[in-house]
Each structure stands twice: as C-alpha cells, then as structure tokens.
Fold this protein.
Amino acid sequence: MKHLAAYLLLGLGGNTSPSAEDVKGVLSSVGIDADEERLEKLIKELEGKDLQELIQEGSQKLASVPSGGGGGAGAGGAAAGGAAAGGEAAAEEKPAEKEEEKEESDEDMGFGLFD
C-alpha cells in the first residue's frame, strides 16, 4: 500500500510515469524502506497505464459492490420481522412498564434515600 500511495503522490505531482527510483525517493524522504519485489511488481502492473483511467475503473467496480454490512442488514430484517409478528405483544408490554414506574414513584413518597 505504501508503494501505491507514493506512486499516486508522484502522479498527483505531475509525474505521469513514475519509476521505481522515484517511488523509493518518496518513501525514503519519510524514513520508509521500499520492498524491491513489491515495488517492481507495482511498476510492471502500472506501466503504460493512465492513472485517471485506473481510478475511474476502480470507482466503477467499487460502486457495484454491495455495502452496508450484510450481517447487520440481515439482523435488522429479522428484528423488523419479529417486531411485525409480535407487534401486539410489544404494545401490551409498554403500558405495563409505565404502571411499574408509577408504583415506584408512589413508594418513594418524595423522600430520597439519603435525605
């Protein structure tokens, strides 16, 4: 990732075809050693390609990927289904909770524990 980031920084700076030495220079300027094998592979993969086109293609691919956390969506759907099925039971429970709160406040009679 660090090699790609340096390559893209060089591209933003106007170098349309950064070399391995250019990328090494960027990385060494911030105290990072370049991995020769990965750097050579990156340079081979990007050789002769337009960075803007690659970014556009990548954006289109990412747009087609479903997002939103598949696990969370399923759980949300199940919770919604359960609420729909037991909607009446949920409605009955709410008044019971309010009654309990009233009982507790009646027991308190306005006196605090440490008054």
Summary: The mean pLDDT is 77.
